[in-house]
Amino acid sequence: MRRLNRKKTLSLVKELDAFPKVPESYVETSASGGTVSLIAFTTMALLTIMEFSVYQDTWMKYEYEVDKDFSSKLRINIDITVAMKCQYIGADVLDLAETMVASADGLVYEPVMFDLSPQQKEWQRMLQLIQSRLQEEHSLQDVLFKSAIKSPIPLPSREDDLSQPPDACRIHGHLYVNKVAGNFHITVGKAIPHPRGHAHLAALVNHDSYNFSHRIDHLSFGELVPGIINPLDGTEKIAIDYNQMFQYFITVVPTKLHTYKISADTHQFSVTERERVINHAAGSHGFSGIFMKYDLSSLMVTVTEEHMPFWQFFVRLCGIIGGIFSTTG
């Protein structure tokens, strides 16, 4: 009785077979069929290799949300060389909260030569080339994020003998400021506190000493993170008049970076540049110097490196092999 039930069950299962087998005596091979099979297997191999390369690759995902952190301090990293002696200039920050941050809190004034040595000029040329390529091909920034290249690459030391006395001042270091709009500036005279803001002792400096030609080796906001080359790194401006103003209008965007090599909270920024000669008779008012007016964006960007999961790769691979096999068959 059990054997009969088993035979009936097996016969029922055989009737449900959606893949009936053809006896080998009815199968005939041909040259055209072999050619199609060879093409099919070659195509499968090529597509499998391509799919595996896609599986190995990663991409950057950008997400945006409102920045709710306004209580912490913002770090400004500075490395600027001005073509004036250190005793003639002063740098500080004044924000919208009327809070003054003096340069003595974290900046170093170092007498240097303004003209670069041959090795330093090559470093500057390389940095400017990277900047130009980043402006043309924005996807290169994703490559820098994933590679976590150490940046900024510091300016190399002079390889030639410094026989002439220093004619410039390198201002480098960092400052901590409030997370509100502010103005970092380098102008004539040292900064002194004032009940209505602040002032600079510019009256003690002769106008013939004014020269705000400058080179920005590095300017960034927040934590120093590998893989970020900032827009103003490598910038050089030459003043055509002793009474000239250079202005940089900067929008700072808080950024959270999460890659397989690094995870950090930092800031990116965009900048608009303007320069003009101060001529009160012609209606061009202001003060000689370098002024960097920054403002913080209300949006925060989260950059995450993502990878294709294995199950998705397996499903895509099965689809490729099964699809080609069925189509050629």
From TrEMBL:
Domain Endoplasmic reticulum vesicle transporter N-terminal, chain residue ranges per copy: 13-98
Entry's Gene Ontology cellular component terms: COPII-coated ER to Golgi transport vesicle; endoplasmic reticulum membrane; endoplasmic reticulum-Golgi intermediate compartment membrane; Golgi membrane
Record's subcellular location: Endoplasmic reticulum membrane; Endoplasmic reticulum-Golgi intermediate compartment membrane; Golgi apparatus membrane
Family to which the UniProt record says this protein belongs: Belongs to the ERGIC family.
Gene Ontology terms describing biological process: endoplasmic reticulum to Golgi vesicle-mediated transport; retrograde vesicle-mediated transport, Golgi to endoplasmic reticulum
Keywords noted in UniProt: Endoplasmic reticulum, ER-Golgi transport, Golgi apparatus, Membrane, Transmembrane, Transmembrane helix, Transport
The protein, known as: Endoplasmic reticulum-Golgi intermediate compartment protein
Classification lineage: Eukaryota, Metazoa, Chordata, Craniata, Vertebrata
Pfam families xref list: COPIIcoated_ERV (PF07970), ERGIC_N (PF13850)
Endoplasmic reticulum vesicle transporter C-terminal domain segment(s): 165-327
Organism: Myotis myotis (Greater mouse-eared bat)
Superkingdom as given in the UniProt entry: Eukaryota
